[in-house]
Structure formats: structure tokens, C-alpha cells
Amino acid sequence: MSNKMLYEEIESQLKAGRPVVQATVIQTKGSTPRKEGSTMLVRHDGSLVGTIGGGCGEAGVIQKARLSLLDGKVREELADLTEDISIDSEAVCGGTLRVFIEPWMPSPESIALAHRLSELAEGGQRVVLHQIVKTPGHDGALARRAVVDSAGEAILSHLPEGLALPESPQRKPNQLKKIEGYEVYSERWDPTPTLVIVGAGHIAEPLEQFARLSGFRTAVVDDRSLFANRERFPLAHQVICGPILEVCQRIDLSPHHFFVLVTRGHTLDMDALRVLIDRGEPVAYLGMIGSRRRVNAVFELLEAEGYGRELFTHVHSPVGLNIGAETPAEIAVSVMAEVISVLRGIDGDTRPLTAISGLHPSLRRATATGKKRQGSEK
Fold first, then answer.
1. Which pairs from 350-359 meet CB under 8 Å and 24+ separation?
2. Which tens digit of pLDDT belongs to each residue from 213-252?
3. What is the largest CA-CA distance in the chain?
4. What contacts 24+ positions apart, CB below 8 Å, involve 290-298?
5. Nearest to 40, CA basis, from 48, 28, 31, 32
6. Strands 285-288, 145-149: parallel, antiparallel or unpaired by DSSP?
7. Domain presence at residue 355
8. Predicted local distance difference test score (pLDDT) of residue 34
9. What is the pLDDT of residue 84?
């Protein structure tokens, strides 16, 4: 769930006169199902939006969230996932989660704040949200926030006067600092990544859906109105019907844009790739569909035109991860998996998790126990 979707949901609940609780992971130790910044909403009827990992740890958070819905006080939950680890338990990660539990109660002020935060979450600039999660008096009052821009200038602030803000998170997007008796949780919001799908054929439909569900803004481009229309892409942020090469000439490019070229023909893919290379502006990801043979043929043609091979080193083509995909939906999963790996900085290490870390200790114990039981039965 993106930050924009989160605060839009909070605003929607508040406008309907219903309180809602926001539960945010502010600190982790050891192996945990979700990391700092993971957020879940608990509605007044007990239904959930999002998750902080499931299992017994989440159950304790929900229980305290229900109390906060009644009295309007902030709370904390320290979910210890190291206890009672067994094959029957969902809490098999072996770490701890510190979760900040904050109620939003209906009022004009809270509605306005949720609306403003949803606007800032959608913005094209990097901002940092600073939030008090513990005060010197531990009074359980509503948490207070400030949002600053990349220059450190306050965009909005509800913090105590004179409280020095911590430095913005750099290495990680989240941090927890103690300042003057307060604990301040800081969260860096980078511009929302945008996936531009050039070509609105069969792969584009599931790819747009998966990208949107993964928190991306989406734009679909095609020159055929039969394909590029709101009936096929009702929830896409942009559907652009026009000459593909002209659109590629003028569409926004930035380090937060991800491009996938899946037009109706390899020649058109090559022409679109040429346009994007000629513009010379950095993008986060540039992928082009095609078999290895066809891709090499495209690169050879461009080299014959005078383009250096170094211009293609960043092009992901053939596009996607090798999962044996065949259907349009499977190919979309493959492409989206690669896009997310680039977004998260995996640096190409997309081996199965079991190949990286092996079986979880609880699973190894269960396997060993099963083998011993089988041996005793013989």
C-alpha cells in the first residue's frame, strides 16, 4: 500500500465520521516479516487495510488498536516473534517488531491533515516526515508531525516549538532518534515510481494492474484507440493514445520512471528505444521485450547506425526474470518482478530465497523430526 493510498483511506474514513487506527513498524530487530515503515490500518469495524506481517504479532497490535479506537490514545506494541516458534505458527521469523499505534479521530483538522499528507505522498519531490512517537511525559496524546522538503524547509509542522529535527534519513528511508527526551520517527518519501508501458497489447493489461498494486503510478501508451482506452485501463493514472514515437519524445523522464517497451512489433520497439536513448535523460529502468536473438539483432542495427554498445548496457532485454513465463499474465509477473528488484536495489541477485539463506531453522527442525519419526516407525 502506497503512502498516498494510505492517507486517502484515512481521509475517507474520517469524512464518513469513522475513527481509524494507523499501526506503523518503527523499529525492528532480527529477522522480521516486514521492515520499518510497514503500515496497517485498523478500521472502526475491525477490518484491516494492509499488513505488518500477520501472525500473533499482528494480533497483539490489532487488540491494542481497538483500545485506541475507544479512547483516542496512542500506544505501542512490541511484537516478539522469537517465542514459541513452531511449524504451526505464522510467527517464524525470529525477530521483534516495535509498532507505533496511532488513532485518527474524525475532526476537520485531522481530515485536513490526512488530505495534505496524501498530496505530499503523491508529489514529485522528495520529502521527509518526522513524527513524535514518545514524549518525555508519555502522556499518550495524539502524535505530532512535521514534513520538510529536500532542503530541510518545513512544509507543515505540528511539533513543539524549538524542538530540533533530526537529520533526514540517508542510507535507509526510515530511522528512529532520541532528541531532548522525545523519540522521533523519520520516514523519507521518495517520489512515487512511475511505470510507463509503451504498447497496450495483451501483456499491458496485467502488467498495469500488477504495477498499480505494487504502488507504482502507471501510464499506458499506444497509437490504437482500440487498445489505449479507459475501458481496458480504467484505473491507470494515464492512458495516452497518440503516435508512439511522438509520445516518447515528450513524455516525462526521471530517475523515478520505469519504461517497458512492449509494442506490436520489434521495429517499433527499436524506434522507441532509439528515441529514449537520444533524449539522454536517466531513467530507473528501461526494458524491451523480445527473444535474445531478436534483441541482439536490434542492438546490431543500432550499432550499425553509429550508436555505441555502452548505450545499451542498462537496457533490460530480453525483459523480465527467468520464471518460465508463457502467458501474458505470467510474462507480466516476470517483468514486474524484475522492475521491483531494480527499485529495491537487489543488484541482480534474484535467486530463490532458499538458495540465499536456506531453510528456516524451524523448518529444518521439523524436517529432522519427521525423518526421525519415519526411522522409528520402520
1. 350/321
2. 998 999 999 999 999 999 999 999 999 999 999 999 999 9
3. 74
4. 290/266, 290/317, 290/318, 290/319, 291/318, 292/318, 294/266, 297/266, 298/266, 298/269, 298/270, 298/273
5. 48
6. unpaired
7. no
8. 81
9. 45
Name the nearest CA neighbour of 28 among 79, 89, 62.
79
Q: Please report whether residue 233 resides in a domain.
A: yes
Q: What is the pLDDT of residue 167?
A: 86
181 and 221 in a single domain? The answer is no
Q: What is the pLDDT of residue 209?
A: 98
Strands 75-80 and 238-241: unpaired
Question: Does residue 70 lie in a domain region?
Answer: yes
Contact call for residues 240 and 198 (beta carbons, < 8 A): no
Strand (E) or helix (H) holding 42? strand 39-43
Domain co-membership, 198 together with 145: no
pLDDT of residue 82: 66
Those residues of the chain that have pLDDT short of 50 are: 84-92, 140
Helices (H) and strands (E) in the chain, counts: 10, 16
126 and 213 together in one domain: no
Same domain, 181 and 204: no
- Residue 218 in any domain: the answer is yes
288: helix, coil or strand? Answer: strand
Q: Given the C-alpha cell 516526515, which residue does it identify?
A: 129
**Nearest in space to 278 (alpha carbons), one of 308, 317, 323:** 308
Tally of domains within the chain: 2
Q: Are residues 181 and 323 in the same domain?
A: no
Say yes or no: 72 and 179 in one domain: yes
CATH code: domain of residue 254: 3.40.50.720
Q: In terms of residue numbers, what domain contains 213?
A: 194-343
